[in-house]
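Repro:
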Amino acid sequence: MNKMWKLAGASLLLATTMAAHAAPAADDEHPSQVRPFNLPPSADLAYSISARQRGFTLNGDATLSWRQGEGKYTINTDSRVALLGKLTENRSQGTIDSFGLAPNEYYDKRFRKDPVTASFDREAKTISFSDGKKSYPIKGGEQDRVSISWQLVALARAARDKFRTGSEWDFFVVGPHDADPWTFRVIGREKVQAGAAIGTVDTVHVLREPPPGTKDQTLDIWLAPSLEWYPVKLRFVDNERDYVEQTLEKITKR
């Protein structure tokens, strides 16, 4: 059960394993690039969840609160399943700068585990963790595992012509215990069946594949241009082919 819920949410939760000291990432592994962005309107998004774990099927729901305005943003997420109740709770909060979302704190709480945080000290230009001794420099543009999906949305909204099939988008993404480079590749246009209240939606399919030789998970995101580019579907698959899939059921603009 715990392993499956390590999958539940890049925009909701993505798990990492903790290691000892790590040297700062090399420049080519820590991209810092200013790109045009256009943040979507504030909204509450409700998702249904289906998952397969070791042959068992589980269903539940997830909620995501996205707020932006006056130079700040907050993202709050949680997921639940029947019988067990709340399984994950994640938050990202920070400011908006020339790169887009600029996290100040990332919060990660999993079922039956203590919460952990990653802190972005903008004055010291350092990223540190409550659970470990690793640290990374702040160069600009760094995201956490909650904010990354919304930074991707903001870039897509501002660069629709460049957000085309085959294009790649590089980021440096902070998790609960460490950070690493991520690359998203645009797969193409696809129709997706969202919840009954939304129906079939034209989307842009974006894929994040783990580097060769690693055991990180694959993340697929389907963004809907007709719905402010909100994510209408997310799918997380681990190296053993267990998965968690989130489907958008309702959007409430705020």
